[in-house]
Design goal:
With 362 residues, this protein is α+β, with helices and mostly antiparallel strands. The chain has 8 helices and 20 strands. The chain folds into 2 domains: 11-236, P-loop containing nucleotide triphosphate hydrolases (Rossmann fold, 3-Layer(aba) Sandwich), CATH 3.40.50; 244-361, OB fold (Dihydrolipoamide Acetyltransferase, E2P). It binds adenosine-5'-diphosphate. The site of adenosine-5'-diphosphate (ADP) has 10 residues, from α1.
């Protein structure tokens, strides 16, 4: 899917700022263009401004500055119920006194649909979330997961072009949450509806999204596809927040052909892609994934002394925690492949990596 621009974005945040108290900006100059049919996730730690952005798009909060456009039109002055947006939140907010079918029928009634049309659409939406048999139940007679499916069906029943979801799976247990992630992803693929999804759970974001906007402190730190975020983080925050990551601190000694040579403090050198470091003499943090580190290679540009501190057997791989250049939380995933080297706690060895797999960040 081509990346949306400010001109053709279905949802556009154009220089949007938000302050609740007139002083602190909790959203700082947000520029985000979401394509029609895209599944875009706002991911970030608690308090980073994700929900505020979603609430401004929904119309429950107003932007302090800037414009929000939907389908090319500014919506700043359109009330929430006139924006035609479906919404799903963590607390299901189904009407307890109504049956499931009545809950789903309600948004259609509000939109003036006749009885038979309503019944057909309710059935279609219930089937979509595999709850066709449950129309006559009340919400209290359903499990948490079933209630959340109904909430999803209710958000989709009037066939909105845009659905907003804020931590919709937060109250479910792990297994059901993972199952529902796939279900929502498949429904999105089938319907082609645009989804803006908020979560603090990086694996949820990686599983479901076309693109992920990583938020921190009211700013998008990086906006990219899941594999780009994991493979090519722009800065130390994104590298730490997405997936598991090892860091090594050092000083840049040289930069040549995009590769930085870094001194770890005692003359030991390592190499990394010079992604985001200020230049020779500056401090930098090298960032490398646990599955990209080799153990036992004695020479080469990145052969750094390491000591094995802990070994955890995990079936398909062995998780090896090491001390590398003073970092005693350096983790290497050793695949449990035929003939792999057997390590012993306490032994000293070397770790190495391809310079392209290691990123020198700010
Ligand atoms: P997230 O969804 O990433 O957890 P929020 O958008 O909920 O972040 O919050 C961003 C910041 O705005 C936080 O510091 C939070 O305390 C503050 N905030 C959120 N809602 C309100 C509100 N209604 N009034 C005042 N401050 C708020």
């Amino acid at each position: 899917m081509p990346t949306a621009t400010k001109e053709d974005g279905f949802v556009v945040f154009d220089h949007v700022q938000k302050s609740y108290d007139g002083e602190i900006l909790v959203v700082k100059d947000l520029n985000l263009f979401i394509g029609q049919g895209e599944f875009l996730t706002m991911l970030g730690p608690s308090g980073s401004g994700k929900t505020t952005c979603l609430m401004m798009l929904a119309g429950f909060e107003t932007a302090t500055h800037g414009d929000i456009l939907l389908g090319g039109k500014p919506i700043n002055n359109i009330p929430p119920h006139k924006r035609g947006i479906g919404m799903v939140f963590q607390n299901y907010a189904l009407f307890p006194h109504m049956t499931v079918a009545e809950n789903l029928s309600f948004p259609l009634e509000v939109r003036g649909q006749g009885k038979s049309e309503r019944e057909a659409n309710v059935m279609k939406a219930l089937d979509m979330v595999q709850m066709g048999e449950f129309g006559g139940r009340r919400p209290a007679q359903l499990s948490g997961g079933q209630q959340q499916r109904i909430a999803l069906a209710r958000a989709l029943v009037f066939e909105p072009e845009l659905v907003l979801m804020d931590e919709p799976l937060g109250a479910l247990d792990k297994q059901l949450r993972e199952h529902m992630q796939y279900e929502i992803k498949h429904i999105h693929e089938r319907l082609g509806v645009t989804v803006v999804y908020v979560t603090h759970d990086q694996s949820e974001a990686l599983t479901m999204s076309d693109r992920i906007a990583v938020f921190d402190d009211g700013i998008i730190q990086q906006l990219a596809t899941p594999d780009d975020l994991y493979e090519r983080p722009d800065n130390a925050f994104v590298a730490q927040f997405i997936g598991e990551n090892n860091t090594l601190n050092g000083t840049v000694k040289a930069i040549k052909d995009g590769i930085a040579t870094v001194d770890f403090g005692d003359g030991t050198l390592g190499e990394a892609l010079a992604v985001n470091c200020a230049g020779v003499g500056s401090e930098t943090t090298l960032s490398i994934r646990p599955e990209r580190v080799d153990i036992g290679k004695e020479s080469g540009p990145n052969a750094v002394p390491a000591k094995v501190l802990e070994l955890i057997y995990l079936g398909d791989h062995i998780r090896c925690r090491m001390n590398v250049m003073g970092n005693d939380q350096f983790v290497v995933k050793v695949p449990n492949a035929a003939g792999h080297k057997h390590l012993v706690v306490g032994e000293t060895t070397k770790v190495s990596w391809n310079s392209e797999d290691c990123r020198a960040l700010d």
